[in-house]
Amino acid sequence: MIVPHHGIFVGRAQIPGYSYPRIVTVRDGGLYDITEKSMATVRDIAESEDPAGHVQNARGNLVGEADAVLAHAAEPGSKQVGLLSPIDLQAVKASGVTFVASLLERVIEEQALGDKTRADALRNEVTELIGTDLSKIVPGSDQAMALKQVLIGRGIWSQYLEVGIGPDAEIFTKAQPMSSVGHGADVGLHPISQWNNPEPEIALLVTSKGRIAGATMANDVNLRDVEGRSALLLGKAKDNNASAAIGPFVRLFDASFTLKDVKRAELSLRIEGEDGFVLEGTSNMARISRSPEALVSATIGDHHQYPDGLVLMLGTMFAPTMDRDGPGKGFTHKLNDIVEISTPLLGTLRNRVRLSTECPPWTYGTSHLMRDLARADLL
């Protein structure tokens, strides 16, 4: 099932006959166009007093069966109704090193200096020293600071451990507004990368006032060798053409779906390659080391404002170590891998892996959307 048959969902679609994205929702298995004046962007809906109520009660025109639209959206080059990233004007932010497994792998990346052949030996050394479960350590606590001193004494302190158990969370810009891709689109790897992986994450829709209005799924495509060479290359490792996939829809909070459900969610990941390789894994939100509320507070507040709101990826505990091309070589993507991220709460986000230079270039930005909406008398 690509999207659950219950819940209040909002998204964006490219519908034949329109030059600009239309706002859509799912009702009784159908995909409905609910675009209307002054509510022609997901940003405007999120900023409204009752986003879920607006979407639920908005008049709509049926444009197709939801599962059928999402199924053919995964076919490269489809010319039918196409699903887009479900966000528009929001900033695309991400939090890093929020799960223990991810934390350990970041330390290994850094110590290996981007060389995946050194990763196994380093993984064993780090695990023996600090263990595999830091979930009981509260970031920034006295216990965490004591552990920091022990690790410094052993010469293994890392900037990733600093943001993993230190007082300050890692928050970075993943992509520019309007640049993320949606379900069925190709996701991009920078051509220089030889060691990379998907990062299945839940992402929160956050308003300009810091209110969490809903949740969706995301693939924070990661170049392990690039970031491993230097954390100062984070921008090059994270923000490239088509490197952020979000969707298929945002599920808005209502009586049946709240932040408590997000905190209990489990994401499943499946990667299937043309070489017959299959990798499966899970990421359990219950094991996150910083609460979603804390991560939102670290992103938006008196110290930083977002007038159009933001989407915040919450990080992942999934760090693939399964060998793909031989013992000790670890996992890395190959072109045309199919990546599926799913949870019963939000559905399935499916994308194909390509090079960023071969994905459709990002050419439709905020200025284009505003001009199109003005011409359509929707502002």
Architecture blueprint of SSEs:
Layout: E1 9-14, E2 22-27, E3 30-33, H1 42-47, H2 51-57, E4 61-65, H3 66-73, E5 82-84, E6 91-96, H4 100-112, H5 119-130, H6 142-153, H7 159-165, E7 170-175, E8 186-189, E9 196-197, E10 200-206, E11 212-220, E12 222-223, H8 224-229, H9 234-238, E13 244-252, H10 259-264, E14 266-272, E15 278-284, H11 292-299, E16 310-313, E17 338-343, E18 347-355, H12 366-375
Parallel strand pairs: 6-16, 8-18
Antiparallel strand pairs: 1-2, 1-5, 1-13, 2-3, 3-4, 6-7, 9-12, 10-11, 10-16, 11-13, 14-15, 14-17, 17-18
Helix pairs in contact: 4-5, 4-7
Order of helices and strands: EEEHHEHEEHHHHEEEEEEHHEHEEHEEEH
- Tell me how many strands there are: 18
Using only CA atoms, what is the Rg? 20 Å
General form: globular
Low-confidence stretches: none
Helix/strand class: alpha+beta
Largest sheet: 11 strands, mixed
Q: How many helical stretches?
A: 12
Strand content: 25-35%
Proportion of residues in helical segments: 25-40%
Overall mean confidence score, pLDDT:
90
User: Distance between the terminal alpha carbons, to the nearest Å?
Assistant: 35 Å
Q: Mind explaining what this structure looks like?
A:
- The protein is α+β, with helices and mostly antiparallel strands.
- It has 12 helices and 18 strands.
- The protein has helices at 42-47, 51-57, 66-73, 100-112, 119-130, 142-153, 159-165, 224-229, 234-238, 259-264, 292-299, 366-375; strands spanning 9-14, 22-27, 30-33, 61-65, 82-84, 91-96, 170-175, 186-189, 196-197, 200-206, 212-220, 222-223, 244-252, 266-272, 278-284, 310-313, 338-343, 347-355.
- The longest helix is centred in the N-terminal third of the chain and has 13 residues, at 100-112.
- The mean pLDDT is 90.
